[in-house]
Amino acid sequence: MAEQIAIQNQIEALQQQQQALYQQQLASNQVLSLQGLAGNRHRRVQSTAPMGLGGTSNLPPFSAAMGQFNGMSGLGLGLDNQPGGLPRGHGRRHSVNVVNKSNTAHGNLGSVSFPYSGQDGFDDGFTPPPGFGGHSRTTSRVDSSWRINGGVGGIQANSGFAAELAQAQAQLQSLQQFRAAAGGHHHKMPSFAFPNMLPNMMAANLMGMGLGGVSLLQQQQQQQQQFQTQLQQQSTQPQRKSLFAPYLPQASLPPLLAAGKLVVGILRVNKRNRSDAYVATEVLDADIYICGSKDRNRALEGDIVAVELLDVDEVWGTKKEKEEKKRKKEENSAYDKTNVGRKDDKKKDDVEVEGQGLMLFEDEEVTDEVKPQYAGHVVAVVERMPGQLFSGTLGLLRPSSAATKEKQEAERREREGDRGEEPKRGPVERPKIVWFKPTDKRVPLIAIPTEQAPADFVENSEAYANRLFVACIKRHPISSLHPFGTLVEELGPIGDVEVETSALLKDCNFPTEEFSDSVLKCLPPTPWSIPEREHDVRRDLREERIFTIDPSDAKDMDDALSIKANDDGTYDVGVHVADVSYFVKPNTALDRDARKRATTVYLVQRAVPMLPPTLGEEVCSLAPGAERLAFSAIFTMSKEGKVLNKWFGKTIVKSAAKLSYTEAQKAIDGHLLSDIVVSPEHSASAIEHDLKVLHGLAQQLRTKRLQDGALLLNSNRLKFTLDDNSLPVDCEQSEGNEAKELVEELMLLANFAVAQRIAVHLPEQALLRRHDTPIERRLNAFSERAKRLGIQVETSSSGALMRSFNAITNPAARMTLELLSFKFTQRAKYFCAGMLDIAKYGHYALSVPLYTHFTSPIRRYADILVHRQLESVLQGGPDPKFTMDRDAVAKIAQQCNIKRDSARLAQEQSTHLYLCILISDLTHRYGPVIRQAKVVNVLDAAFDVYVPEFGIEKRVHVDQMPIDNHVYDEHSHTLQIYWSGKDVISWLAENSDDEHLKKVKQNAEAHATKMEVASRSVHDEKALFDEDDAEDDEIVLGRDSELVKETETSKQRLLSASKVQPVFEGLKTTATGHRIQEIQELMTVPVIVTADLTKSPPVIKVYSVNPYTEQK
User: Which Gene Ontology cellular component terms are annotated (predicted)?
Assistant: First the structure.
């Protein structure tokens, strides 16, 4: 009780300090000063701003308590040392306090204590606030916003604000009139109260400051003149009809934001239907629906956009009217081959999109039955990802024009017959533009000047149909349906592993070029030795028994461990991290390049490093026997795993041995480390003992974390075996073990402790990492799915959810729910402490109030910055000074978030690419790849399966099966499939124009013939020697040199070669002779897995095996 009272007193004192500081800032900013501020460098389509934000539905951009755009400086204007932050968005329709909104579905994390809380070693002075991860705070909106630079008084008290608002509203009105004249008008949202105006007003203040400077007037005049010119375009240039509305001038946005007329957020585009898009804002309890390309107004996936809210009923009514007209048109033209072909193409596109990733993406919330809560249209692009590149193919005609031409040619052949003479063709007219089709279907076609295409492209365009290019968008005029761009480079043929790898890196905005000379000049000379002065200022740990535990092929070893027993029965546990910040000095070319890259990208076949190999693999890497500079965290711990004390400092270390996870696990299991190389002054037996003690302490730390509410989910990662040509020959799920848990727990311990230290001593600038509570809509959907499986899941907190998982006894059910849980949890993100209310610091999955990254500076730039901050704290005494202000830290945090998400996507796409290559190879060697799958979801005309062998989730469509009928029961969520007797692959090949399926069929027939011949020869031999043992048949077949080699070790090849008969469930035959397969969740079904390498990215498709056809 006394502890709770002390915590409450501390929180009240902090709130009073916040209030006092806010009032002080408000008083000093009564007038918005624009003098001396940097001019706006905002650009819309061809943005050169150094910052951007990748789009994802799992990353709400705004802080609910602070209205900051992930700490992004200057509203993403890319201005150094300018006030940072973006508005959370528009006020809600109802008079409800959004900031203080209670959210019982997410629970109150205030009851969760900081790991090791109350231990003597964790006494830096930070106490987690009540409800640090929830939404139960009751402080005022002003209190929660005290950190914003300049307060809100600037805009309101500015004498020119009324005039600016009047002008901006006039421009907004002109824009509405323009849209009405262009035929794309909806009524704007009816006026309603904005209970949470503060974030919009503060963002307006910051935007106004970002637009400031001596050139403000010139910029305003230029933008307004451009805006007026575009408005007049429709009347003055009727031959160039305006297809889109012009963007509002950037100078108009601040007053409109301050007045609550606009909302700012991140746009994401529906992967299945580019006409539907959504703008995510955390302040609104639902996303804003953007209907159609006109309302999206040339904005792209991931753009930060300004949106005006529209009347939802009108937008929805217009959408339904268009859909009804389209439906009637399709009914009237039911026998139109062109129309049927167009529908088939749409289905084909959907299947391709589903097949271009490892997992199915979540269906968007807008459906035919559910009307969105908000609707709007884009009035300005605030910022676009700088230097955005797209991979794709080049064509002479637009796809629609090519389809029309193909239709006309087909009609001609039908009219004249095959013997009809080819029409005489004159010389090919050279077009002004050619068309770039991005592989990402959310990106529109891009018009490219013909002179940028290969010299013979116009005359020989078919030769380039299967080659990948890279392009970028330069501009998108309001009078053009498509943007104009530049062709950057030609990559090579589709399907080539290195070409596809380069393409995915380009799409994810990662460099493929080598490090520049200016970067390499910053590197120390090699061989490198520790300067004498470092021996004087660092703690010498070279005599300590320190060792690394990493993957067997690791080169960048940036962390090591040690343990030493003390006389009083305690242990000193050391986490030693490479001191990368010693070599990467601030504001050098090396530092700028590392900040731009932000992270190492781990592909299947190689890594794209953040730092040059000289640093990452040599000078910084904690290689055995080498003296290295380190930043160490040493914890004094009891035998029970309780932290009693901690020490941070710069050190000199020398690793005694390099262990793989497999070798460390052997020691934990009690085996001898006979194969490792240990430095002469140490022994393998001593390291074995160290590992066992560390394992015991780590397990106690893990138990404590779970008791405190941590959520541990099994990530399904594939591990590949590559041949000498770096091509895949096998894959398997990467499994965890106790050695990995040992390293994980000690890294977490160090990260927790460092986060607490820098947050207390650098409350404005500390770079931390947070993990939001799940999105309520997705969490509720997850809970409903669990109920359908007969499982009650408690979702009030991360700990409650973990306890629910542990209570599941059905392995298939747990696997399914863990798979689904990744879709409702959000991604963790970096942030600057000074940009966010302390109630939002928490990490949901780890269930801690503070967290950061400290232990991997070779591969993460965030860790380098944290090292600098910790060094500043250790050197600064009671009042440390850090050289970067909070806006600069916030900008780096945002860059690290963007790059980390992009790196994760690149890694997933690389895994997908190599899996496709492996599946294609297995199909070529042994025929169609058949694997057992688990049904994880049943729909009315499809069902979703998870294939554990390959770690993929795919949708199986009933229209891709040779069936007579199918019946869906929405109450039992079962799907009855009435099979015909046809083989699936043969039927698909005969009923589609898919060349890939035709090849799969040919391959299947060839292998069936080969198996038949092999089987016949075996039976002939057995008859000769009068042998009839069934097992002998399998052995001889298995040794056939053309089927599988005797020395083969690939599990996937052995499984495909074995031709094991699939096992079916839910089969029944009716009295009338109908052969039925009933599909229900958690059922095991055999599926055929194919990979089409002629597409980029390659496409994985999964088909159900017909249980009533004999498999050959």
Answer: P-body
What type of residue is 17? Q
What's the one-letter identity of residue 746? L
Task: Give the residue from 722, 564, 533, 534 showing the smallest Cα distance to 637.
Answer: 564
pLDDT at 796: 92
The whole domain housing 1062 covers 927-1007+1048-1104
Average pLDDT over residues 1049-1078: 92
Lowest mean pLDDT among 91-95, 413-417, 803-807, 987-991: 91-95
- Using a 10 angstrom Cβ sphere, with 0-12 exposed, 13-18 middle and 19 or more buried, the burial of residue 387 is middle
**Helix, strand, or coil here: 590?**
helix
Q: Which has the closest alpha carbon to 86: 320, 338, 382?
A: 382
Q: Per-residue b/e over 697-734, b at no fewer than 16 CB within 10 Å?
A: bbebbbebbbebbbbbeeebebebeeeeeeebbbbbee
SS3 310: strand
Does 1002 lie in the same domain as 898? Answer: no
N residues, the chain: 1112
Nearest of 250, 286, 475 to residue 376 by alpha carbon: 286
Percent composition of the chain: helix, strand, coil (DSSP 3-state, to 5)? 40, 20, 45
Compute the mean pLDDT over every residue in the chain, rounded to the nearest whole number: 79
Question: What separation, in Å, do the N-terminal and C-terminal C-alpha atoms of the chain show?
Answer: 73
Q: What pLDDT score does 113 carry?
A: 46
Task: Report how far apart, in Å, the C-alpha atoms of 1071 and of each of 899, 962, 974, 1074 are.
Answer: 60, 21, 21, 7
Residue 918: partners with Cβ closer than 8 Å, 6 or more residues away: 720, 728, 729, 730, 731, 1052
pLDDT value for 675? 87
Can you give the pLDDT at residue 880?
85
Is 550 part of any known ligand binding site? yes
User: Confidence class of residue 829 from pLDDT cuts 50, 70 and 90?
Assistant: very high
Q: Which two tokens stand for residue 764?
A: 């404005």
Which of 269-283, 512-526, 569-583, 1013-1027 ranks highest by mean pLDDT? 569-583
Backbone angles phi, psi at 71, to 5 degrees: 70, 20
Quickly count: other Cβ atoms within 10 Å of residue 516's Cβ.
Answer: 12
Tell whether residue 559 is among the known ligand binding residues.
yes
Please indicate, yes or no, whether residues 472 and 538 belong to a single structural domain of this protein: no
CA dist., res. 233 & res. 239, Å (int): 10
Total structural domains in the chain? 4
Q: pLDDT class for 302, splitting at 50, 70, 90?
A: confident
Is 1061 found in the same domain as 1002? Answer: yes
User: Do residue 598 and residue 620 come from a single domain?
Assistant: yes
Whether 488 and 351 map to the same domain: the answer is no
CB-CB contact of 858 with 620 (8 Å) = yes
Question: From its phi and psi, is residue 256 left (phi > 0), alpha (psi between -120 and 50) or beta?
Answer: alpha
In DSSP notation, 256-267 reads HHHTTS-EEEEE
The helix (H) or strand (E) run that includes residue 234 is helix 216-236
Give the CA-trace dihedral at 737, 738, 741, 743, to 10 degrees. -110
At residue 471, the 3 state secondary structure works out as: strand
Q: Give the CA distances from residue 401 to residues 397, 404, 633, 878, in Å, rounded to whole numbers and listed in that order.
A: 6, 5, 65, 71
Q: Is residue 1033 part of a domain?
A: no
CATH number, domain of 278, equals 2.40.50.690
Q: What's this model's pTM, rounded to 2 decimal places?
A: 0.81
Domain boundary among 849, 879, 909: 909
Answer yes or no: do 629 and 768 share one domain: yes
